[in-house]
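Appendix B, example 12.
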Amino acid sequence: MVIRSMVCAGLLVPSVAFGAVHYGQARVVDVQPLYETVTVNTPQEVCREERYAVTTPARQPGAAIPVLGAVLGGALGHTLGNGSKEKGVATAAGALLGGAVGLSVANRQPTVAASTRYETRQMCALEDRITTEENLVGYRVRYVYQGETYMMRTNTHPGNTVRVRVDVNPA
């Protein structure tokens, strides 16, 4: 039991004696920011004024006026007819006469020609706006520890000193 403890203690001594780790402070002598160029796509609404034609179709006199005249004439003829035979003839004659008067009135209506006018409207669409940006990604740091110059990269600005880990091993 005693021998085993001494062997274990003997194994621990070389690791402590030959490999010592400690921390120290090193003086920063140069800091260079590191940038990365990135492409940024930003959709942007772009609006423009556009002119467009609005065409109104030609208008012909409609068939509604002669039909209405025929109906009104037929009703009037039916009302004025005396006997049952005469009512039918009076109704037909009134409808023909009313339709003819309605057609005459419709033909006096002016024909409206087709017309075109121009209007302006705002048209909007999404367009890609592509830009490049420089993003800070870290710092290249040069520092001096015990007369030797070293370099490292950090994500944040180190300030005037950096903490270093010193690992001493026999050569």
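Residues 32 and 41 are 28 Å apart (CA to CA). The helical segments are 2-18, 64-80, 84-107.
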